[in-house]
Amino acid sequence: MAVKVLSTWLSRKPGKRPEIEEMAGKALEGGGLSQKDRALFWNILIGTIRWLRLLRWHLDRYLKRFSKLPVEVQAILLTGAYQIVFLSRIPYFSAVNEAVEISRSLGCAWACRLVNASLRNLARGDKILLQDMDKLLERCSKGFENCVSNLTSHPHWMVKRWTMRFGRRQCLSICLSNNEPPDVVIRVNTLRLTRSRMKALLSEHGMEAEETVFSPYGLRLKGFQGRIEELPGFELGYFQVQDEASQLAAILLGPKSGDRVLDVCAGVGGKSTAIAQLMNDEGIVTACDTNRRRLLLLEENAKRLGLSSISAFGLPYPRKQVEEMGPYDKILIDAPCSGLGVIRRHPDIKWNRLPQDIEKLSSIQSRLLDEWSSLLRPGGLLVYCVCTMEAEETTFQVERFLKSRKDFCLMDAPSVLGDLPGKFAKGGSILICPGACNMDGFFMALFRKAG
Fold first, then answer.
1. N or C: which end of the chain has fewer CB within 10 A?
2. Of 159, 178, 197, which marks where a domain is finished?
3. What span, in angstroms and rounded, lies between the C-alpha atoms of 18 and 390?
4. How far apart, in whole angstroms, are the C-alpha atoms of residue 191 and residue 51?
């Protein structure tokens, strides 16, 4: 199953590949796999994509013209290599034999000898896997960008961009963080129970949870790898999955009971439901998105959490109705972005993004800020946030918006949140690099409208 999904994904061009989670979900729908096999399928598929470039680099040492092979054979070799390099519980000969059998079953019997020889050579060879910062800096002292690209499995253009902006050590830190599978983080629905009670409930079910440092509503589930729906309290609406950095965006907006709040790019409702929670579900939360499927999930989440203050609107058609519900006291614009701050959660982003995407997305972000900020009442607050660190999508957007809208001023976001370390302050805004304090990469800015 992993080989088939990976083959389909690899056959598409970068920038046009569907989200791997969506493809994996469809494959599992009729798979009839046990929970253990589902976990292994997911591990092999996501792990192979996470380490795609390193695996290619390893295979290129034993195999010429990899890129000329049929995509099915490439997928067989890559998944086999991932098991050999990373999965210690699977004996290498089992991984090799399985790869050979898959070659035969997929009609690629001619490749059996090639697959067998290449993977056995890899298993016997030096499987370089460096995770120590200083050792990597030393090894990559010459040809830094290419070396880091190979050993941390990142596109060369990303490494070059981050090296120029952050320096070698910080760039390497980002790359290493992107390869660390993250903990699941939940936001406790304090309208139904306290964070301490939720933590105790998880402990009663044998799960280790620790409180998030900066969000007073978050719990980090250490080592949890099961299905979210199976966590205690899910059906009762005790929590919503949401990274700590994302939770901070709603806290920064500061919604209060009775407010009229607009969430422009609501998605599945992580921030919309957080806003409603902070308002004690008293007021109006207008949640908009162009993706109707995500809005259906938003409505399901709101119902499960017991929130009645949220109304979902699928853009662009009800735009006039959304405008007539204003002006709004608070507006959140969680804009579409490159997503380079959440690669650790979605490793396929590394291979789906292209440099030109950042320029296209920055234009969309500018338009969203200009269009929707007009619906804010005088004296109201607006939060702009993106899950990326790229200047074109973060600080440049803030500078451009302030130049074009003299009736807005930038608030000191770090001081509003109070407890954030000074290293997150970026010219009055907040910039969190991936992995910092175990959070996703995230940027947020707080504006006030004059009046």
1. C
2. 178
3. 23
4. 41
User: What is the tens place of the pLDDT at every residue in 217-243?
Assistant: 999 999 898 889 999 999 999 999 999
* Six-digit token string for 443: 């940027």
Sign of CA dihedral 419, 421, 425, 429: negative
Least confident of 90-94, 351-355, 437-441: 90-94
Which positions are catalytic? 387
Q: Looking at the domain assignment, is residue 140 inside a domain?
A: no
Split into its structural domains, the chain has a count of: 4
Same domain, 173 and 261: no
**Which H or E element spans position 425?**
strand 425-426
d(CA 56, CA 67): 10
- pLDDT per position as a tens digit, 195-211: 999 999 999 999 999 99
pLDDT in tens, 124-165: 987 777 778 898 999 999 999 999 999 999 999 999 999 999
Q: How far apart are CA 434 and CA 431, in angstroms?
A: 10
Helix (H) or strand (E) holding 148: helix 144-152
- Cis amide prior to 14 (ω within 30 degrees): no
- Annotate 360-389 with DSSP letters as a single string: HHHHHHHHHHHHHGGGEEEEEEEEEEES--
- For residue 25, the enclosing domain spans 2-124
The mean of the pLDDT values for the chain is 94
User: 446 has which bridge partners?
Assistant: 383
Claim to verify: residue 190 and residue 252 sit in the same structural domain: no
C-alpha to C-alpha distance for 209 and 243, rounded to whole angstroms: 14
Q: 110 and 56 in one domain?
A: yes
* Same domain membership, residue 107 and residue 91: yes
Question: How far, in Å, CA of 36 to CA of 337, rounded?
Answer: 34
Cβ pair 409, 424 in contact under 8 A: no
